[in-house]
Amino acid sequence: MNIQGTIDRPLTHDPKKQAPMKPSASEPTGSAIPDFTPAGTTTGSRQNRTREMQLIPEALARAHMHERLHEAEQESRAVRLATARRMQRRAERASMRARRALAMAVMQ
């Protein structure tokens, strides 16, 4: 039994195994625009470009993660700086209390 596929439901999705397209009578010969391949390029370079384009989302994700890591490091530095300043003020207050207590002890 020879079952043919339709355009919507082809027998196979592999273009090499599908029947070649036949030119229609309503379309003049040579009316289709030929594939444009710039001089000096090969299908290998075209494949390479496609592979590079497929890797663009991965590169974007890597750059995004790097940026987030950089922001987290900056925020961590800012938190450490704020903590260090707070501890410095606390130490200065303790030093002032000790100086006052010493001055009071000397005066008596």
Description of the structure:
The mean pLDDT is 80. Helix content is 60%, strand content 0%. By secondary structure, it is mainly α. The N and C termini lie far apart (118 Å). It has 1 helix and no strands. It is rod-shaped and about 120 Å long. The chain has one helix at 43-107. The relative contact order is 0.04.
In short:
The protein is 60% helix and 0% strand.
Along the chain, the helix and strand elements come as: H
Strand percent estimate: under 5%
Query: What structural class do helix, strand and pairing data support?
Result: mainly alpha
**What is the strand tally?**
0
Model regions low in confidence, pLDDT < 50 over at least 5 residues: none
Number of DSSP helices? 1
Mean pLDDT: 80
The percentage helix is 55-70%
How far apart lie the N and C ends? Answer: 118 Å
Q: What's the alpha carbon Rg, rounded to whole Å?
A: 37 Å
Largest sheet: none
| Cα shape | rod-shaped
List the helices and strands and how they pair.
Blueprint: H1 43-107
Features:
108 residues, mainly alpha
